[in-house]
Here is the input.
Amino acid sequence: MWFILSVLVLLWVVGYMFILGYLYRKNSKPYVSSFLETTYSKIPSSLNASEISVLLYKKIGTEAFIAGILYLIDKQIITVEQKENTYFLTYHPTEPLSFSQKYMITMLFDTLTSIKTVSLDTISHRCDTSSGATNFLLEYSSFQKASYKEIRYRMYEDKKGYTLVTYYGYIGLFLLILNFLLRIHSLPIYILIIPVLFLKVYFLKIYKRTKAANTEYFKWLGFKHYLMNKQEFPKETTHTFYMYATLLGILDIVCKQNQDSHFVLELHKTLSHSLRKAIWEGNRGIKKK
Here is the structure.
């Protein structure tokens, strides 16, 4: 029985390697981009902050939230005024807003229907209490889910091979159980649990951009390269441009070239601090409940 089981395990390992190759080709290997340049001097498209974040990083994080606020400021849905060494944000109700934008407005202003003003100091202290941090975290999580749901299926292909991965994992577990029931107790066979788990995790983690999205992806990388090597920026840069700089991870470079960037840096600092605190304190609050 040991020999037969060993042969079955060997065949399973060979099949496992073929399945990994199949999953990579179908669900991960990128298409060859039609854009072959390293630099792109124009804004590639009119994608919003959340869309760019999903396209570049396959997720929506803190930078997407901050960039989304900058976009709303650029569109005058949120206006900014400096008073007494702090900044005040005022929301002006308008339609239409996307689901993700509604969550952003609610997080900062607690309203969608009336004009309301809030200071950066108030936002900064919103997560000082456990309940405040928990509420902020829940709202932020809702923003992430709403944004991702809107975008994911337009930029990434449906995964192939779920049934194959599931049943092949079951076969691996069956061989492991036989190893125990037949009292063979072969250590290499017990170790099958590792590739079985890896196969499942690998399938969940990999994604493949559509052909159009992959070309768009390389254009945004080219645009980032262009900005990184640009020596001067306009003195009056729009908040949309700051939005791109935030998402591309070059906000510090852009701000060094612009004297009117103090508010952008303060907003980034305040929201980053609030979200980090919300994630830390909010998770603790949720666990206690």
Observations:
- The two ends are 52 Å apart (CA to CA).
- The chain has two domains: 2-30+165-205, 49-157+208-288.
- The beta strands are 78-83, 86-91, 116-119.
- The longest helix spans residues 262-288.
